[in-house]
Amino acid sequence: MTENPQSQAPLTPAEAAKQAMAAARHLADEIGPRPVGSPQEAAAAAFVQDELRQLLPSGLEMARQEFSAPRSVWLPFTIACAAALLGVALWMLTAGSLLGAYLGALGCGFALWEIYAELNFGWSPLAGLVSRVTSRNVIASLPPAEGEGRNAIVFAHLDTQRTPIFSRSSAGLKAWFVLFYVALAVIVLTLLAFVASWFGELRLPSWVGIPAVVVTVPAIAVLLHTDLTPFTAGANDNASSVGVALALARHFSMHPLKNTHLWIVFTGAEETGCQGAGAFLDKYEDRLLQAYAIALEGVGVHKPAYSLREGMLGAYRSNSELVRQAEHIAKQSPELSLRPVKVRAGYTEAGMAIKKGYRAIAVLGMDENGLMPYWHSPRDRSDNLREEALAASFQAVATLLQRLDEMPLSIKLSQVKPLRERG
């Protein structure tokens, strides 16, 4: 006789950590680097599917979603910097003429548009120029035990990133971000100078274009270098989160939430703009009413933190209710060392969810400098992972989901029709 899954004892954090560690080691050591659209990314998705199949008798439902994603996240930035450089060069070649100022402004404006769009999940003219590959999501769906009153989504991405030289030390990362923001400021000021010359019909001094050349040339060199570096094995970013998400699937398949439909989504192409999370939210939007989203990112080295906001040029603020619940968990379980952070060096899949109007938060491991350890580094190996961190992350997210489930219900989702079906 098969034992009823719900009669089994829930996973303890220590047990969950051991299972998460085994999964992370398989992904990082046996499958290895997992570029977007690669056979290794597909192998990671197949591994997750095999793990989830063991849970199907419990009522868990599984789906696979394929989608198209850009191959590189770095190439658009390279082209953007090259466009700014070309605009300034044309201005110089035309001896600072008014036509040159128009061309310079066009190049700088295009560069700024592209950079902003890439950092904020937006559309740009380069969207169709970067080569694309097929990636995939693996989706675990766990219906509630009683009645569906809300949805909760947990994201954990399968793919890994390249290993540029600047990500190999905290000093290198800081130097890169200084170069990025200085280059951005210089391009903005150069654009303003060109535009001002239109209205005043002024011939700008020859030195106006020099700062833009000085900052864009090294930026282009670094970006070209980046797109030629090998990919990381990604033990912490993000095999650790995949392991924790699999442990959450096992835990809640045995002990489902009462009123919350839980979706655990193992995404592809996070490293090229959170494409997998976006594809899932777009396809399933009619089923994600009253939805909360939690993005797991790099949870295998340091004990977990929760994001208050994220983004480099745009601020994606975490949902206040999720923040409030995280604060309560931190007070009630001080051993978790759960603390608030601001993610200034990029974004997570929570940012994509917030962009699309969902209530979201990220749970991630960050060091005392506000950086994720071994982020996009060749040293992101499984021997750096710590079971204490995995256990604390599992406990924090499981508790957060449980607290969401205990919130009062405002509506029964089974009685809500999609907008297109309403008269």
Can you put this structure into words, describing what you see?
The chain has 423 residues and is α/β, with parallel strands linked by helices. The chain has 2 domains: 5-72 and 131-163 and 230-408, Aminopeptidase, CATH 3.40.630; 75-128 and 167-226. It is 45% helix and 15% strand. The radius of gyration is 23 Å and the shape is elongated. 50% of the residues are buried. Mean pLDDT is 92; it is low at 1-5.
What is this entry, summarized?
By secondary structure, the chain is an alpha/beta fold. The chain has 11 helices and 9 strands.
Overall pLDDT confidence: 92
Structural class: alpha/beta
Biggest sheet statistics: 9 strands, mixed
Number of helices: 11
CATH topology of the largest domain: Aminopeptidase
Categorize the overall geometry.
elongated
Rg, alpha carbons? 23 Å
| Strand segment count | 9
| Beta content | 15-25%
User: How many structural domains are formed by the residues?
Assistant: 2
CATH architecture of the largest domain: 3-Layer(aba) Sandwich
SSE order, as H and E? HHEHHEEHHHEHEEEHEHEH
Which stretches are poorly predicted, pLDDT < 50 over at least 5 residues?
1-5
The H-level CATH homologous superfamily of the largest domain, spelled out, is: Zn peptidases
